[in-house]
Amino acid sequence: MVNVQLLTQAVGELDEDRVMALLTEFVAAMPTAEEALSALNACQQGMNAVGELYETGEYFVGDLIFAGELLTKAVDLIKPVLRGEGAATIGKIVLGTVRGDIHDIGKNIFKSLVESAGFEVYDLGVDTSPEAFVAKAREVGADVVGMSGVLNLATAAMKNTVDALKAAGLRNGVKVLIGGNPVNSEVCRNVGADAFTTNAAQGVKICQGWVK
Amino acid sequence: MIIIGEKINGVIPATKQAIAERDGGYISGLAVKQAEAGANYIDVCAGTDPELEVDALQWLMGVVQDAVELPLCIDSPNPEVIARVFPLARRDGIINSVSAEGNKCGILYPLVQGTAWQVIGLTCDDRGVPGDVQTRVEIAKQLVMKAAEFGIAPDRLHIDPLVITLATDHESLLKFVAATREIKALYPPIKITSGLSNISFGMPLRRVVNQSFLTMAMFAGMDSAILDPCNQEMLATLLANEALLGRDRLCRKFANAYRSGRIGQKR
After folding, report:
1. B267 to chain A: nearest residue by CA?
2. Are residues A99 and A199 in the same domain?
3. Containing domain of residue A204, as a range?
4. φ and ψ of A111, to 5 deg
5. In this structure, are A113 and A30 located in the same domain?
6. pLDDT tens digits, chain A, 212 residues: what are they?
7. Which residue of B has its CA nearest to A15?
8. A162 plus A199 within the same structural domain
9. pTM for this structure?
10. Are residue A64 and residue A162 in the same domain, yes or no?
């Protein structure tokens, strides 16, 4: 198993060589999907550190973009482990950044991970209207509707979307997962979602639990 | 941008004294500081009387090479001196310098034939430093053609189109730029270099003039420079220029230099 502290530290320091070395070694040791998720979790903890260092003026915009690239590379390395042997689709997820918000880094990471875990993902992109979520969920028979957002106003759009799912008579047939900066248990309740997360790897676990 | 660290030069009074007293600690300190600041080569110039120069250079080369892993830039106006100390170099570095004066090329080019050594070529000849662009370009051509006779390709040459003091020639920078562009058009893989600080001789606020010169020269295509990488302002200007010229993706070299305190406020 990879040393999660070292991995978190290497991601936080944007030490690309070290991150890649740790993960290459990790993947070569044939880890389980569970271990892969904790490695991803460690990477994400490192990203949190990057975010904090950006806030304090230690990192700059270029470093932030680089961090995004580094995480994408890390995810690409870990992805094959997540999928394991069976390649069958285990569920369908309709995913999007909600109306009024265009942040998609977190959404894209989550998308990449759940796809690797065996979900079929219908990605509606950014600034997605409630109607678009409803239409796609109905069309494909979604198991999960995943909504992402970074701005505070995203929570209102999430609630509007859940309301639209209810109005369309779809709410009881799907699980709703919300993710991103502004979500917490209180927001989750107000929005009427089934679960929330600020961590892509944890989001994958939640979805896996729902389709078991 | 290739940085040749200039601090170990006997024309600098403190360095001169350290050489005279064979103060190895002081010299190795200069080498280490320049290496940490980002120098790619360490220039060693004894600047002593000719009869003492071989001894002094041999000592300098030993001290510097014991202190840092970087290659040397062996600096002497006397080609015979360079030829004598050359065997002491542990890595392929730069010869500083040849020119079209006397038999410099004839002595120094054979030395580096069949090696990876590079050579700085000054655009001056027995008539002195030319005041015009065309003569500089002509001398550069001579240096390149002579190098070819010894199998030295243009990519191993750093041509220094010898900038004249701005205080005495108000078009000095313009001529440097024109010469740089013409020489590069003739030999695209060739490198252009400069000693930089000569431009501001006799002026107040030399550091500002030097930094502006660095910026314009880099924009014109200068590839290497002999400068003090421990000069934080100069290094900051150089790294900002690298970023502005599209050679620093996501500005990370600049940001890393800032974070580590190599530029900006000491942290």
Report:
1. A58
2. yes
3. 91-211
4. -60, -50
5. no
6. 778 999 999 999 999 999 999 999 999 998 988 898 889 889 988 988 998 898 898 999 899 889 988 988 998 898 888 776 555 788 999 999 999 999 988 898 889 888 878 899 999 999 999 999 999 999 999 999 999 999 999 999 999 999 999 999 999 999 999 999 899 999 999 999 999 999 888 898 899 999 98
7. B256
8. yes
9. 0.79
10. no
